[in-house]
Design brief:
By secondary structure, the protein is of the alpha/beta class. Helices cover about 40% and strands about 15% of the residues. The chain contains ten helices and ten strands. It has an eight-stranded parallel beta sheet, with helices on both faces. A two-stranded antiparallel ribbon has the order 3-4. Strand 6, helix 6 and strand 7 form a beta-alpha-beta unit. Helix 4 packs across helix 5 and helix 8 runs parallel beside helix 9. Bound molecules: zinc ion. The site of zinc ion has 7 residues, from loops.
Length: about 350
């Protein structure tokens, strides 16, 4: 089955540098990526235009006042929302296509048109809360797509993995009381936005359905893979999701200017391969949505490296039995906490 790549030229029109000349979220991030993919004949992926999300779809996870606020601010020519987050006149339209791309990807996956999808869109989404834009994010693309999958497309359980180096505070906030979305995030702490402690496991009926795995600066592949294999994926398998969505940032790369983790391009390949194996063994589709990644060359290199892996038709490797985590290690501590809710 083929793989689908969603993008839209409107996503290039959102440019925070009009307000903040040194802003790291530039249209060139996507341009560099698209040039690299074009040189590789899009790696055999079929391309689709990302449509706009409807306001009703946005309002499955956002307050109507928030949607209005972004629309009105952009209609007035834009401005600063906070010290990191800026919009211009075209940003509302860019954000509608970014969220709409994620929604269209999920609809295509659930219609059986492909087993994997990738959204090369911006502005990114995972910091956007129900009623607040922040951290370069206006609407929460992954959250909108997950909510549409449940509310409009009949799914009962969606698993979201956020491997961006920053905590996906918006996605966590939106779903923190819901048991139909399992949200897992591996992220650096301390780092913006300073949320995502291990002890925050969701609340009310959503208790246990939020998995926050903070790692210290300088963390590398061995810790990220251990947390993925020994905490995140066993919990995800037990959750029995019908769809896997990934908030895919590439800013945990050693060369990224905004964080201090030490992943290599090959680390993202390994992470992506394990997530793809999990989805394939479960027989469910995998949709990946771009979040951060601020070294343009590294971002392009990472996406070009993972697309063939998640689209590949090689035999999946079921999750192997893991050696016990080193007593006292961060992984052992995380297994103790998350193991109260899931059979790890
Ligand atoms: Zn990030």
């Amino acid at each position: 089955m083929s793989s689908l790549y969603f993008s839209h030229s409107a996503c290039l029109e959102h440019d925070p540098r009009a307000h903040s000349p040194a802003h790291p979220d530039t249209p060139a991030r996507l341009l560099t990526l698209e040039r690299a993919l074009a040189e590789r004949d899009w790696l055999g992926w079929r391309r689709r235009e990302a449509p706009v999300a409807s306001e009703q779809q946005l309002e499955l996870v956002h307050a109507a006042e928030h949607v209005r606020f972004i629309a009105d601010l952009c209609a007035r020519g834009g401005g600063a929302i906070d010290p990191d987050t800026f919009v211009g006149g075209s940003s509302f339209r860019a954000a509608l296509h970014a969220a709409g791309g994620a929604v269209a990807m999920v609809a295509a996956l659930l219609a059986g048109e492909a087993s994997v999808g990738f959204c090369g869109v911006r502005p990114s989404g995972h910091h956007a809360e129900r009623g607040r834009a922040m951290g370069f994010c206006l609407f929460n693309n992954v959250a909108v797509a997950a909510a549409v999958a449940i509310a409009e497309l009949g799914l009962r359980r969606v698993f979201i993995l956020d491997w961006d180096v920053h905590h996906g505070n918006g996605t966590a906030e939106i779903f923190r009381r819901r048991p139909d979305v399992l949200f897992a995030s591996i992220h650096q702490l301390p780092l913006f936005p300073s949320t995502g402690q291990l002890e925050d496991v969701g609340s009310g009926p959503g208790e246990g359905y939020t998995i926050n795995l903070p790692v210290p600066p300088a963390s590398g592949e061995s810790l990220w893979l251990a947390l993925l294999e020994q905490v995140v994926l066993p919990a995800a398998v037990a959750f029995e999701p019908e769809l896997v969505l990934v908030s895919a940032g590439f800013d945990a790369h050693a060369q990224d200017p905004l964080a201090e983790c030490n992943l290599q391009t090959s680390s993202f390949v390994q992470i992506a391969a394990r997530v793809r194996d999990m989805a394939q063994v479960a027989g469910i589709p995998l949709g990946v949505v771009l979040e951060g990644g601020y070294d343009r060359a590294v971002l392009a290199e990472c996406v070009c490296a993972i697309l063939p892996v998640i689209a590949g038709d090689q035999q999946p490797h079921p999750l192997a039995a893991q050696p016990p985590a080193q007593p006292g290690s961060l992984t052992a501590h995380a297994r103790g906490q998350i193991g109260r809710y899931w059979p790890l």
